[in-house]
Amino acid sequence: MVSAVQNVAIDCGDAYALACFWSEVTGRPLDPDCAPGDRETAVLLAEGPMLYFNQVPEPKTGKNRVHLCLRPDTTREAEVDRLLALGASFLADHREPDGSGWVILTDPEGNELCVLRGDAEGVD
């Protein structure tokens, strides 16, 4: 017996707003049943589990133990710039001189995410 991953759940203060941010990040649509003010929303990814946003009353207080790692179809630097323009914040730089490594950003609610080297640059 095995279990399939249905979704990746992200607790947040504003489920609809954060889902809209991640919809822009991934280029994938919100679940058509989602609307502003909904306490539960989802982004429908092309493959794999959906991103599920669950509105909770308590704020984020520490480092995420699980986070998303993104591999852009352009360059890492172009994607970092794009995500910052969408509302992400810079947290840390782990790029290496040989081009490997990653950049850590946070989404608008402070959840960490990593931006890896892009497909156009080769795989780390």
TrEMBL record:
Pfam families: Glyoxalase_6. Residues 8-116 form the Glyoxalase-like domain. InterPro entries: Glyas_Bleomycin-R_OHBP_Dase, Glyoxalase_6. CDD domains: VOC (cd06587). This is VOC family protein.
